Amino acid sequence: MQAGFVYLDEAVPHLKWDAKYATADNFTGRPVDGYRANRVVGTVQLAHALRDVASRAKDDGLGLFVWDAYRPQRAVKRFVDWVSEPDGMSTKAAHYPNVDRARMIELGYIAARSGHSRGSTVDLTLYRLDTGLLLEMGGDFDLMDARSCHGAKGIAHEAEQNRAYLKNLMGSCGFSAYENEWWHYRLENEPYPDTYFDFPIE
């Protein structure tokens, strides 16, 4: 493990996870370069902040469910390469039903550099501690669509409330939201603001 980083599933109480990019269940349709194990990793500072989030969520009977945090730079490069490959369409319905794959970089869905590679950005949601069920958020992780934006039109009231709860919760613990993805949060006081790491997750 890179110095200054930890496994979030070991560091944060009641945290559940499914590292989608370590599996074929993601928008590329196959495991992504750099993800050699289904684990979630982040900086020590990210883990400390998420422990605070988890503690506050527990008071409302909720826990954290994480899909991604630290992302190796080689994985980001894989995403960029994927955009220009022939579209097999197998993941389009689930992940980009209304977007032309070739325009994903232009539209800002994929970038050559990601805050995830600095180790203090996280993709997450909430689950109920009593049932283990994820809260309804009006759209799945990595849905590249206007429905994923904060304040999106046409999502159910329950999902609106849950998104707002998560945003307020994360904000109270030092995180900034990314307006185009309800699941994406960056630690404002991140420890490596100019470093893009590329060690694999093992």
From TrEMBL:
Q: Does the keyword Protein biosynthesis apply?
A: no
Protein name (Swiss-Prot/TrEMBL):
D-alanyl-D-alanine dipeptidase
| SUPFAM superfamilies recorded | Hedgehog/DD-peptidase
Broadest EC class?
hydrolase
The coenzyme or cofactor needed here is: Zn(2+)
**Active site annotated at which positions?**
E181
One family from Pfam that matches here is: Peptidase_M15
Q: Any note on cofactor binding? A: Binds 1 zinc ion per subunit.
Q: Which UniProt keywords apply?
A: Cell wall biogenesis/degradation, Dipeptidase, Hydrolase, Metal-binding, Metalloprotease, Protease, Zinc
Instruction: Say what the protein does.
Output: Catalyzes hydrolysis of the D-alanyl-D-alanine dipeptide.
Q: Which residues bind Zn(2+)?
A: H116, D123, H184
Similarity remark? Belongs to the peptidase M15D family.
Gene name of this polypeptide: vanX
- Its source organism is Candidatus Alectryocaccomicrobium excrementavium
- UniProt keyword Cell wall biogenesis/degradation, yes or no: yes
> By its UniProt entry, which InterPro entries does this protein fall under?
A_A_dipeptidase, VanX_actinomycetes/firmicutes, Zn_M74/Hedgehog-like
- Entry EC number(s): 3.4.13.22
